[in-house]
Inverse folding.
């Protein structure tokens, strides 16, 4: 099951943005896209959870269960995603900023519900 999250956007906000994009397809409404992919296939004992952050310049992929590993591709210089920049020291700052952005945007996309009923 894949789910695309666009940050803190209600359905009504997405619809109104869709209309503005239809009016002007070049209009930018955000600078990233979050993609979540979860797959459970019992007969193959497969449980995959993958998270992507895609910007105009980069695509970052994080894999659940593989700490310290991921994919980082330049969408401009490597559109076929052949050269993984994850371990390239020249891109370590970019990688860290994108991982942090992915984390914070994921928090922004999550609901704050259910509301607290009692204090602990």
């Amino acid at each position: 099951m894949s789910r695309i999250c666009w940050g803190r956007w209600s359905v009504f906000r997405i619809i109104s943005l869709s209309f503005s994009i239809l009016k002007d397809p070049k209009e930018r409404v955000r600078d990233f896209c979050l993609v979540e992919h979860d797959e459970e296939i019992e007969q193959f004992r497969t449980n995959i959870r993958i998270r992507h952050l895609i910007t105009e310049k980069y695509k970052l992929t994080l894999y659940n269960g593989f700490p310290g590993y991921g994919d980082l591709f330049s969408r401009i210089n490597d559109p076929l995603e052949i050269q993984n920049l994850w371990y390239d020291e020249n891109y370590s700052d970019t990688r860290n900023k994108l991982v942090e952005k992915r984390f914070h945007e994921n928090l922004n996309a999550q609901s704050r519900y259910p509301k607290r009923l009692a204090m602990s």
In short: Residues 1-15 have pLDDT under 50 and may be disordered. The chain is about 25% helix and 30% strand.
